[in-house]
Design goal:
Blueprint lengths: L19 H4 L13 E2 L4 H14 L1 E7 L15 E5 L4 E5 L3 H12 L4 E4 L2 H12 L6 E3 H8 L6 H10 L7 H4 L10 H20 L9
Parallel strand pairs: 1-4, 2-5, 5-6
Antiparallel strand pairs: 2-3, 3-4
Helix pairs in contact: 2-3, 6-8
Length: 213
C-alpha cells in the first residue's frame, strides 16, 4: 500500500490544530491535585522518588527556569525539574543538593523514557547548568509534526486534539520566579500538570507513535 510516508511524490495532508478559543470550549483537563504533588528535599525522600520513577520506566518531563526580561540576558536555569507518573508528580528544586543529584540521574538515565514538549530547549538549559545530556526522550512536538501538523501544537493543542479537553496555562505563573526557595501552590500545580499532561498525551497517541529518540 502506498502512503505519503513511502511515496515522496505524494503530498502529506497538513492538519490544523484547534485554536485557543476552540479548546476553551472543551471540558477542562483533570490534572493532578496538590495531594498528588510531592516536593522531595531530603536524601531519603529523593531516593524514594528516584526508585518510583525508575520502576515506572517512563515519565512526563519538563523544566522551569526563572524568566529573563533584559535583552541579551542569559538564563541560569533550569531551577525546577518536574517528573510525572500516572498518579503523582515530583517537583525537584535544584537549589537542594539532593534534588539536583536525583534530577541529574533521571535526566541522564537511558532506562527512563522522558516524555515532553519542546525538549530541545530543555536540553540546552540542562547542558548549560548541569553539564550533562538529556537522554532517552520522546519529544511530542516532533511526533505531531510527523502526524501532519505543520505548526507546533504544544501541550494545549495536543490535549485538545487527542483528549478533547481544555488545558489551561496561566501566563503569570509561566513567567513567575521559579528560583524562589518556596514555590507557591499555583506554581507547583502548574509545573506538575505540564509534565503530567505530556504523559497523558503519549498514552493517547496511536500505538505506532510510541517510540523514543
Amino acid at each position: 500500500m502506498t502512503t505519503p510516508e513511502n511515496n515522496p511524490h505524494q503530498k502529506r495532508v497538513r492538519l490544523i490544530a484547534p485554536t485557543k478559543a476552540e479548546t476553551a470550549l472543551l471540558p477542562t483537563f483533570p490534572g493532578l491535585t496538590m495531594e498528588q504533588i510531592h516536593t522531595p528535599q531530603t536524601r531519603a525522600e529523593c531516593q524514594r522518588a528516584a526508585e518510583k520513577i525508575r520502576v515506572a520506566g517512563v515519565c512526563g518531563f519538563d523544566t522551569e527556569a526563572k524568566p529573563t526580561f533584559r535583552k541579551g540576558q542569559k538564563s541560569d536555569g533550569p531551577h525546577v525539574v518536574q517528573v510525572a507518573l500516572t498518579d503523582r508528580a515530583y517537583i525537584f528544586q535544584l537549589h537542594h543538593e539532593e534534588c539536583e543529584k536525583v534530577a541529574a540521574y533521571i535526566i541522564e538515565s537511558e532506562e527512563i523514557l522522558k516524555v515532553g514538549f519542546g525538549l530541545k530547549n530543555d536540553h540546552s538549559q540542562i547542558r548549560h547548568r548541569l553539564g550533562i545530556a538529556l537522554n532517552h526522550t520522546l519529544d511530542l512536538d516532533q511526533i505531531f509534526r510527523q502526524m501532519g501538523y505543520s505548526r507546533q501544537l504544544g501541550v494545549r493543542g495536543a490535549i485538545g486534539v487527542l483528549l478533547k479537553q481544555c488545558f489551561k496555562k496561566s501566563k503569570s505563573t509561566t513567567t513567575s520566579n521559579w528560583a524562589n526557595r518556596k514555590l507557591t501552590p499555583r506554581q507547583l500545580t502548574y509545573a506538575a500538570n505540564d509534565a503530567f499532561a505530556a504523559l497523558k498525551v503519549m498514552e493517547a497517541l496511536p500505538t505506532e507513535n510510541h517510540y523514543d529518540h
